[in-house]
Amino acid sequence: MPRADTGGRGTTAPRARSCGVRPAGTLVALAAVLLCAGAGAASAALHASDVRRGPLPALAKQFAQVTVELEVTGDPRLTRPKVRGSQRTPPVLVFTAEAVRVTAPNGKVTAVRTPALVVVQQRGGGSDATSGPAAARAVHEPGTARRDAAREGLWSAWRGLLPSTRIRVVARAAPSLSPADQAAAVLRVTADAPPVKVGAPTVLGRLAGSLRAGLREASDGLRPEARALLPGLVVGDTSRVPPDLDDAFRATDLTHLLAVSGSNLTIVLALLIGPTHLATRAERRGLAPRLGLSLRGTAVVGGALALAFVVVCRPDPSVLRAAACGLITLLAIGTGRRRSLLPALAAAVLLLVLYDPWLARSYGFLLSVLATGALLLLAPRWSAALQRRRVPPRIAEVIAAAAAAQAVCAPVVAVLAARVGLVAVPCNLLAELAVGPATVLGFAALAAAPVALPVARALAWCAGWPAGWIAGVARTGAALPGAEFEWPGGWAGGLMLAVVLVVLVPVGRRLLRRPWLCAVCALAVLLAVCRPAPFTRVITGWPPPGWRAVVCDVGQGDGLVLAAGDGTALVVDTGPEPHAIDRCLTDLGIRRIPLLVLTHFHADHVDGLPGALRGRSVGAIETTTLEDPPGQAQFVRTTAAAAGVPIVRAAAGERRHLGPLSWEVLWPPVPPDLPGPSSPGGPDSQAAGLDGRSGSAALDGPNDASVTLLVHTRGLTILLLGDLEPPAQRALWAAHPELGAVDVLKVAHHGSAHQDPLLIRRLAPRLALISCGAGNPYGHPAAGTLAALRAQGVRVLRTDTDGALAILGTTARLSAAVSGHRSLVSQAIGRRSGAGPAGDRISRAGPAHARRPRASPAGARRTGVDPAHARRPRVSPACARRRRAGPAGGRRARPRRLGQSGKSAATGRARRWCAPERTDT
Q: What tens digit of pLDDT does each residue of 733-785 get?
C-alpha cells in the first residue's frame, strides 16, 4: 500500500517545535534572572535605607554621648587579647543589637530600628591597664582578689545577655569602620554596673538560653579540651574555646565544626528520616517509620526540628543556609515529589539573600554555600573515580567529600588568611570519625539537661571522648611544621590559587592511573608537612649547621635561642605570639629547654610563652624581680603553673653554665626584700660584686628591670640588654666597670632611639642584632641608633628586613646567617678565651669558683697595636690568596662591601665574601 507523501514535513515538524521551545525556555530563564536581580536590588536598597535612617548615624559622626535602648540580636562574645607594643590590650565584650530608642544630648527622644555594634569595656581597660611599681604592689594587696571577683561578676552579667533582651545603656557613639558595614554605628559602653534591663527576652529566647546553659553545666566536669569543645560542636557556643585551640582549628581547616552548619542538621535529620535516598520509599529507615509517621508527618516533625535548630544554634549564615536547604528537602519529601538537591540549594540561597541581603557579603555564608555545592557536584564524581580504582565505597565517599569541600573553599580561605593548609584533608578525615558520635550524644545531653541533669552529665561524659579526639587531631595537625604555608592574600591570591587547583585536577586524574607516581607525590607531601631537619636543611639551608644563637623572627618583640647541645637550648624571651616562637623552635629542632628566661613582663616578650612550652620539656622559667605589668606577670604564673614549670627570680651576680654555654646575670640588682638570686636546683647565693641595693633607683618601670645576660659560647661573647633604657644602661655600666668589648650585642628595646651612646662605644660590638617587626608603628629601629652603630663599623642585622638571624663561628671567625643564607661578617680576629664548660646538665656556679674570664675591660689594648691604626683593615692569608687568584677568566675580583642580606643581586644565591679583619683596641 503506497505511503502518503508527507513532503518531508513529518520528520521536520518535531525538530521545528523543539527549536521553538528552546528560545522560549531561554527567555523564561533570562526573565527569572532579571526578576531575581531586581528583587535583590530592591531588598538591598530597603535594608541600606534602614541603616541610614534615624538620628544615630549623624550622632555617631559627632562622637556624641547618647542614651540608647537596645534589643540584643546576638550573643555577647569576648574578643581575643592583642599585643600592641609592650602592652596586651584587654578583651572587650562585643555583640550586635538594634537601637529602638535614642535619646540625643539635647534630650530629644526618637523611636528607631537601627542596627548597631556594641562594644563593652570595663573602666580602666581591665586588669592590665595600670602599670608601674604601685600596680605591681597592688597584686599582693588583700583587696585585689575581692576586686577581681567583683569585676568577674560584672563581666558575667553582661555576657549572660540573651538575644531579644532589651537594655538601656549610656554610650559614646562612633561611626562604623566602613560605610558598607551592616551596623550604622559603634556604641562604646563602659561597664561600671550590670546592664539595665528594660525588657525580658522572648519565650523562645529563654528556652534556647536555658538549653545552652544546661549543656555548659553538663560538660563542666569534662577534661579541659572536651569541656571547651563540646558546646561548640553541638550549638556553636565557642565561649570556652581557648585561643591556642582555636588557632589549631584554623590551621587544620576544622573551624566549620565550630561554626554549626549543615553537617549538624544532617545528623539530626538522619536520625529521623534515615538515609535521604530512601526517605520517600517504603523501605525508608530512621525513627519516623518506627513512630508510625507518614511522609507528611515526617516532613512536619523535621521542619520543627530544623526551626528549633536555628533557634538554639542562633541564626548564623551557615545555620540559615543549612535550615533552608533542609526545609526545602523536607517539603519535597512531604509532597512526594522527586528531590533535586542542587535546585534546593539555589532556592535556599536566593530566599536567604532576598530576606537578608547582607548575607551576600558574608564570607561564612559563601564558604557554606561553596562547600555544599562541592558536595553535590564534585564529590559524587570524585567518589566514583576512586571506586573505579578499587577504593572501598565508604572510604571513597569520605575522601571525595573532604577533598571537594577543601578544593572549592581554599581560594576563599587564601583571600581571608593568606595561607594554604596541607593537612586539611587528612585532619578532616580523622575528625569525621568522631563528629557523628559527639554531635548525637551532645544533642542528647542538650535535651536531657533541663529535666535530668545527671543523665545529661553522663551523656556529656560519653560525648567528651570523641570531642577530645577532635581536639587532639586539630592540635597534632597544627603542630606539624608544614601544616600550612604562606600564600598571597586578597582576591588576586585567591584567583591565583583557584587557577592552580583547576590545573591540578586533571593532573590528579592522570596520577591516579600510575600508582608509582601517586606514591612519589604522597611522599613529597609527607616530607613537606613533616619537614624532617636534614631534609629542611638541605632544601632551605635553615638552620645553618653549627649555629650558636638565633634571633627568631617573632614580629615586634624579642625571642632568642642559644644552642646548648643536641635539641637543647637556653631561650630568652618568647615574643608576642605563641605560633611564631613555636615555629622557630621547631625549625631549630629544640625539644628541651632547661631554662627559659623572661627578661621582663611586657607582652611583646612573654605572650608567646605557651608556644615555647608546647610539646617541650622545660626545666624552669626565670623572670625579673619587678612584677609589672601585674596582669602579664599573672599570665606568666598561670601559664607556668598549668604546665607544671617552676618560676625563679634572676638577680645580678648569678652564674650558670649549660653545655657549651655559660652566662652571668648582670642586671637587675637584687631588691632589698630578696636574699639573693635563686636557683631551681641549688641553694641561694649572694651575687659577687653587687650589694643588692646599688642601682635600685634605676628601676623606673618594667623596661629598666630587664634581665641582662652576658653569655659566652665557644669563645663568643654575647650581651643581651633586654629593653633597658638609658638610665638603666648607665647604671649597668656603673655597677660593672669591668665590662668591656663584646662580639655580639642584642640592641636594647628593639633598636629604639633611647640608647646610651657611651655604652655602645664602650662595648664596641662587631655584630649588632635588632629584633623588631616589619612596619611597626614605633619607628623601630631608630635611624639615629643605626647611624651610631654603623659609625663605629658595627655590622647591623635586623629581623624586620632580614628575617631570622643566626650567629655562627667563633671569635676568630664570626659569621651570621640571614634567612638561611650565610653572609661572612668578620674573620681572622684574635681568639678570646673563656668558653664555657662542657656538659648537658644545667648548673650554677657560686661566686668563689667556676669563674669565667670576662670580656676585655674598657681601655684595655692588645700588645703591639697602635690606637691610631686600630681600625685599619687587614686581610687574612686565606682571603688574600683568593683575591690574588681572582675569578675564572683571569680578571681580579673587585672588593665588595658587605650587603644587608648577603645575596647576589643577579642570582639570589648567597655569596661568601671576605671581610676585613679588625684589631680590637
A: 888 888 888 999 999 999 999 999 888 899 999 999 999 998 888 889 999 99
Q: Which helix (H) or strand (E) holds 603?
A: helix 603-606
Choose among 564, 583, 573, 574: nearest CA to 659: 564
Short-list 718, 740, 878, 900, CA closest to 807: 718
Residues 6+ apart with CB under 8 A from 218: 445, 448, 449, 453, 456, 457, 459, 460
Query: Do the Cβ atoms of 563 and 841 come closer than 8 Å?
Result: no
| Helix axis angle, 424-448 to 262-273, nearest 10° | 60
* Amino acid identity for residue 792 in this structure: Q
Q: Which run of H or of E encompasses 472?
A: helix 453-479
**How far apart are alpha carbons 277 and 730 in whole angstroms?**
80
Asked whether 81 and 89 are in contact (CB, 8 A), the reply is yes
Buried/exposed 759-789: b ≥16 CB within 10 Å, e otherwise: bbebbbbbbbbbbbbeebebebbbeebbebb
pLDDT at 305: 85
666 pLDDT above the threshold of 70? yes
Q: Pairing relation of β-strands 65-72 and 93-103? A: antiparallel
For 264, 265, 301, the CA distances from 289, given in Å and listed in that order, are 22, 19, 12
Write out the three cell numbers for 401.
567529600
State the pLDDT confidence band at 11, using cuts at 50, 70 and 90: very low
3 state DSSP class of 858:
coil
CA separation for the pair 794, 791 (Å, rounded): 7
Please, what is the Cα angle at 308 between 305 and 312, to 5 degrees?
A: 135
At 618 the pLDDT is: 95
For the stretch 440-447, contacts whose Cβ atoms lie closer than 8 Å and that sit 24 or more positions apart, written own/partner, are 440/267, 440/271, 441/466, 442/215, 442/230, 442/231, 442/233, 442/234, 442/467, 443/234, 443/268, 445/215, 445/218, 445/219, 445/234, 446/211, 446/212, 446/214, 446/215, 446/234, 446/235, 446/312, 447/211
The DSSP element (H or E) to which 382 belongs, if any, is helix 363-388
Question: Is 899's pLDDT higher than 70?
Answer: no
- Residue 110: strand pairing partners: 102
Q: Is the pLDDT of residue 675 over 80?
A: no
Cell numbers 664548660 label which residue?
Answer: 837
Q: How confident is the model at residue 169 (pLDDT cuts 50, 70, 90)?
A: very high
Indicate whether this model's pTM tops 0.90.
Answer: no
CA distance 658 to 652: 18
Tell me the CB-side half-sphere exposure of residue 625, using CA atoms within 13 A: 23
Backbone phi, then psi, for 773, in 5-degree steps?
A: -95, 145
**H or E element, residue 593:** strand 592-598
Residue of 317, 311, 308, 407 lying closest to 365 (CA atoms): 317
User: How remote is the C-alpha of 647 from its chain's centroid?
Assistant: 26
Q: Strand 661-667 to strand 655-658: parallel, antiparallel, or no bridges (unpaired)?
A: antiparallel
What is the 3 state secondary structure string of 515-549? HHHHHHHHHHHHHHHHCCHHHHHHHHCCCCCCEEE
Max CA separation in the chain (angstroms): 132
pLDDT in tens, 344-357: 788 888 888 888 88
**pLDDT reading at 705 higher than 80:** yes
- List helix spans (H) across 688-810: 726-735, 757-763, 783-791, 799-802
- At 810-821, the pLDDT tens digits run 888 888 888 744
